[in-house]
Amino acid sequence: MTFDYSVFGLRVRSEIPLPELFEAATGEADVTITRGPVGAPAELAGGLHSVADDLLFVEPEIGRYRIAAGREIIVEARPGVPERNIRLFLLGSAFGALLHQRGLLPLHANAVEIAGKAIAFMGPSGEGKSTLAAAFHDRGHRILADDVCVIDLDGGPRPLVRPGLPRLRLWRDSIEQSGRDAAHYDRSYAGDETFEKYDVPLAPSSSVTAPIEIAAIYLLARDAKFEIAPLTGLPAAEAVFANTYRGAFVSTAKREHSHWTACVRLVRSVPVYRFSRPRDLDALGEQCAKIADHLAAESPGP
């Protein structure tokens, strides 16, 4: 039995149920996911490897994922591993490798819809990307992407964001600050009660389900005071390169030149800003307001 889903603008046919994704009508699949042996040496260490013409992602405690031609993922899971944990690395690192194979530009970023355009927040883990996106969501804005924000540079006259996973992954303190109850959600990683990150699923009504134009990118940073400053030229391209999702995979996938070219193309088309703000969950409303005011001030008049 197989299941059909849609994510990152791709139709996915999977032998593994993927409840994190929206179901899609049956049609020709862009990506297939199957279970089976990956046909690679068992002694390979954790990380991404080049195997023949394919990529192999190894997570020693979870299993191995063979990614072929941007169209196929074979999953060889270790016995007894919870399905949630298998899906965590399938929809994360394995799909990250597949996106690189397809020549897309995946950023380590969240994206929300503001005034009909996509606004992305990029930065390293722990910088508050999902928390800020959740604050915008709770103020009525739809979510495009959480953690993996896929940029399509060739889908229209301007770069587009393809919709990602319809969920927000939040730490317990962010969940509680937002008025939610962590007991209502599943931990992102099953079997470890000390891991306090949870998956908060999104309804179709609060998710964007078709690609939309990206209007701005904000690089999140911590500081004692609020400041929004433009990044241009080489610093902007370097910031995008540094905040590529699974950027360490780029060289193994043999996409260094094309990936750097994509980063440069993006910053020539889309403004990039550094958004510095205090580490203060109580200031989330102020952060949302400052971004909204900045976007309004930077938008061209009629």
Main attributes of the structure:
single chain; about 300 residues; alpha+beta; Phosphoenolpyruvate Carboxykinase, domain 3; 2 domains; 8-stranded mixed β-sheet
Describe the fold and architecture.
This protein has 302 residues and is of the alpha+beta class. It folds into 2 domains: 99 residues, no CATH class; 159 residues, Phosphoenolpyruvate Carboxykinase, domain 3, CATH 3.90.228.20. Helix content is 25%, strand content 33%. The chain is built from 7 helices and 19 strands. The strands form 3 sheets. An 8-stranded mixed β-sheet has the order 3-1-2-4-8-7-6-5, covered by helices on one side. Strands 9-10-17-13-12 form a 5-stranded mixed β-barrel, surrounded by 4 helices. Strand 6 and strand 7 form a beta hairpin. Helix 2 crosses helix 7 and helix 4 packs across helix 6. The termini are far apart. The mean pLDDT is 94.
